[in-house]
């Protein structure tokens, strides 16, 4: 099993698909990496030699922000917005959607499970 950037890459998948298991590498970047290393697109992870795995590691280390560094960078960006007190930072702080989505209905992923308010509903006679 190949271990790249702290992630175990599944051995039976193609290299392009396997690289997408690394946070910060999607299909386009994975294809780009495979082309830089000079591997055929249909190569499986189990067929990689140690030298090829080292080459892939080097390419990723040189030109891409992945895994822990990427998560740290994202967290710092969010923290910066919150410290500034800008609108997006306030939305992050309150745990509400940041990019203008409606919250009257929906937004349950961000807001959490709906909580019933006691005595809210009026009984009609």
Automatic annotation (TrEMBL):
InterPro entries on file: Rbsml_uS13_C, Ribosomal_uS13, Ribosomal_uS13-like_H2TH, Ribosomal_uS13_bac-type, Ribosomal_uS13_CS
Keywords of the record: Ribonucleoprotein, Ribosomal protein, RNA-binding, rRNA-binding, tRNA-binding
Protein biosynthesis recorded as keyword: no
Keyword RNA-binding: yes
Signal sequence coordinates: none
Function: Located at the top of the head of the 30S subunit, it contacts several helices of the 16S rRNA. In the 70S ribosome it contacts the 23S rRNA (bridge B1a) and protein L5 of the 50S subunit (bridge B1b), connecting the 2 subunits; these bridges are implicated in subunit movement. Contacts the tRNAs in the A and P-sites.
NCBIfam families associated with the record: uS13_bact
The protein's name in its UniProt record: Small ribosomal subunit protein uS13
């Amino acid at each position: 099993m190949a271990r790249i950037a702290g992630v175990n890459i599944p051995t039976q998948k193609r290299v392009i698909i396997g690289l997408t298991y690394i946070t910060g590498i999607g299909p386009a970047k994975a294809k780009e990496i495979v082309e830089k290393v000079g591997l055929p697109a249909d190569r499986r992870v189990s067929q990689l030699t140690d030298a090829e795995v080292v080459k892939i590691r080097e390419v990723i280390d040189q030109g891409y922000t992945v895994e822990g560094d990427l998560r740290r960078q994202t967290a710092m960006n969010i923290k910066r917005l919150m410290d500034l007190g800008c609108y997006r930072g306030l939305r992050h702080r309150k745990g509400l959607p940041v990019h203008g989505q409606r919250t009257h209905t929906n937004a349950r992923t961000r807001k959490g499970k709906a909580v019933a308010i006691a005595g809210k509903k009026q009984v009609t006679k």
